[in-house]
Amino acid sequence: MSQPNLETIRSLYAAIAAGDVPTVLGVLAPDIEWREADNFIYAKGNPYVGPTAVLQGVFLRLATEWDGFAAQPQQFFDAGETVIVTGRYTGAFKATGKKLDAQFAHHWTLEDGKVIRFQQYTDTLQVAQAANA
Questions:
Q1: For the domain that residue 100 is a member of, what is the CATH number?
Q2: How many Cβ atoms sit within 10 Å of the Cβ of residue 107?
Q3: Among 30, 40, 65, 89, which one has the highest count of C-beta atoms within 10 angstroms of its own C-beta?
Q4: Does the structure show a pLDDT above 70 at 1?
């Protein structure tokens, strides 16, 4: 068990919820590989490599294309260098006004206190339906 890794990921979700971009980016390794779920609306950029790519390809889009988008973690599973988080995405896509309430699983891999890999799993159909008129 790696309690520090678990706490790093818990803190990351708190920073995301607070809109604390510097803290979020500070937890990501310089060469992080970030992968959105296959067929997710932001998966075209997979893999996003480096914090700037993640910021521009994922977080800025979530902030500008959605009203009230939130990743609400429900369970955390500590597996040493790997932390699995399950929860729900909520929000409304601005262009359509359609709401989202989809389950997710996030697979985080850490090394020396930094996230080196991220893999998202979610209900991509529900996200696509919210994003399309």
A1: 3.10.450.50
A2: 16
A3: 89
A4: no
Q: Beta strands 82-93 and 99-111: pairing type?
A: antiparallel
Tell me how far apart the alpha carbons of residues 23 and 65 are, in angstroms, rounded to a whole number. 22
Question: What is the total count of domains within the chain?
Answer: 1
Task: List C-alpha distances in Å: 102 to 73, 74, 86.
Answer: 12, 13, 11
Give the list of residues 6+ apart from residue 100 with CB closer than 8 angstroms, or none.
Answer: 66, 69, 89, 90, 91, 92, 93, 126, 127, 130
The first and second tokens of residue 113, run together, are 């206190």
| pLDDT tens, residue by residue, 10-38 | 999 999 999 999 999 999 999 999 999 99
pLDDT for res 2: 66
78, 82, 106 from 61: Cα distances, Å: 29, 26, 19
**Residue 84, C-beta contacts closer than 8 angstroms, at least 6 positions apart:** 76, 77, 105, 106, 107, 108
**CA 54 to chain centroid:** 9
